[in-house]
Inverse folding.
């Protein structure tokens, strides 16, 4: 970890905080502030964990990715240059890339694991429990191509703006919109078409 | 903003205006009011949104948060140790080198626990580091790979393996004659 000694950390924190809600925290962390560490973890661990879990379909893998993301935060906090991009964008990008790496290595294993989550109830209409619907949705997400899944997770679940999501994925907004459109069409085909029951039985 | 773009917003971003691009949101809502027949398309997109929302976020394991915070404490302590290295009290070269070795090893022991893929036990890393100080050749690279894969923590390694402080003037950090 490179050591950076800011002559005016308070001034940097102010500048960083103006455009990036996490910029000031990162500077404090680089200066050894443990309270700032806790705050950053409280702020972002749930989101990073959620991204990883939906990308990987495994809680255990998601925890490992989340831990690795924060490990890199601690290592690189001293190198962070405020004002160029939001720190959360960088964290999301690291999380996504770590997920892609894992998926590349475990592609067949992931696909083999998916059938274990299939609902074995006699018919969907006879067993419309929320947890079963949730599992089916998660399964449908896992069946999407990775980049369509990423786009859906970032925009729908993480509520990132289209610009932020495009930055995370390092693509244009047009490319993001194409992924979102295809992803949503794929999910609609799997979820709504196969079980109009799913829609009809849920409270709308 | 026209009818076709409004339709695309539903198809791409779903039914919730908060998910639509900020720059287009106002115009889209205005147009939607003028074209009530588009509400059916919005509702259609909403059906999918509702299903997606059934995938609930799981609570984060408290043990995970605890591990991450502990990891941060260790990393910040290691960083603090590196800062201390900038102005050590001892000046005699060999003693200074031994002091740096001690700090470096404590930093290694502190950092390496967090990754499953790392070499275990930590004593092995300590032994390898001692061997590396003797040979000054390729051990740093082994330790780098073990800890960080292809990423290099130059500050830590350069400080720890500064051979001039160990009375090895004339050798590069890789152990070659300069």
């Amino acid at each position: 970890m490179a050591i950076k000694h800011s002559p005016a950390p308070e001034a940097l924190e102010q500048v960083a905080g103006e455009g990036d809600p996490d910029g000031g925290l990162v500077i404090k962390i680089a200066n050894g502030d443990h309270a700032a560490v806790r705050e950053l973890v409280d702020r972002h661990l749930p989101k990073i964990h959620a991204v990883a879990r939906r990308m990987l379909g495994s809680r255990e893998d998601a925890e490992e990715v989340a831990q690795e993301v924060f490990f890199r935060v601690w290592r690189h906090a001293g190198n962070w240059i405020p004002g160029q991009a939001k720190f959360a964008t960088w964290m999301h990008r690291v999380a996504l890339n770590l997920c892609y790496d894992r998926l590349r290595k475990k592609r067949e294993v992931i696909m083999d694991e998916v059938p274990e989550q299939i609902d074995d109830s006699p018919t969907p209409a006879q067993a419309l429990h929320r947890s079963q619907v949730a599992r089916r949705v998660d399964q449908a997400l896992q069946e999407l191509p990775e980049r369509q899944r990423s786009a859906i997770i970032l925009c729908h679940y993480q509520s990132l703006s289209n610009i932020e999501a495009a930055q995370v994925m390092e693509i244009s907004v047009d490319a993001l919109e194409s992924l979102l459109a295809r992803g949503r069409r794929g999910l609609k085909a799997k979820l709504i078409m196969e079980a109009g029951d799913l829609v009809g039985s849920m409270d709308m | 903003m026209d009818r076709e773009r409004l339709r695309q917003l539903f198809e791409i971003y779903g039914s919730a205006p908060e998910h639509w691009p900020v720059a287009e949101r106002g115009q889209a809502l205005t147009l939607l009011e003028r074209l009530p027949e588009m509400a059916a398309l919005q509702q259609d997109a909403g059906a999918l949104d509702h299903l997606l929302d059934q995938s609930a976020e799981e609570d984060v394991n408290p043990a995970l948060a605890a591990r991450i915070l502990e990891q941060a404490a260790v990393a910040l302590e290691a960083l603090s140790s590196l800062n201390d290295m900038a102005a050590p009290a001892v000046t005699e070269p060999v003693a200074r080198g031994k002091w740096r070795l001690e700090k470096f090893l404590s930093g290694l022991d502190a950092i390496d626990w967090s990754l499953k893929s790392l070499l275990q036990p930590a004593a092995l890393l300590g032994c390898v580091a001692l061997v590396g100080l003797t040979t000054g050749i390729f051990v740093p690279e082994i330790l780098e790979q073990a800890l960080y894969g292809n990423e290099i923590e130059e500050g830590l390694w350069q400080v720890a393996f500064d051979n001039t402080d160990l009375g090895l003037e004339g050798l590069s950090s890789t152990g070659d004659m300069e």
The CA atoms of residues 16 and 46 of chain B lie 8 Å apart.
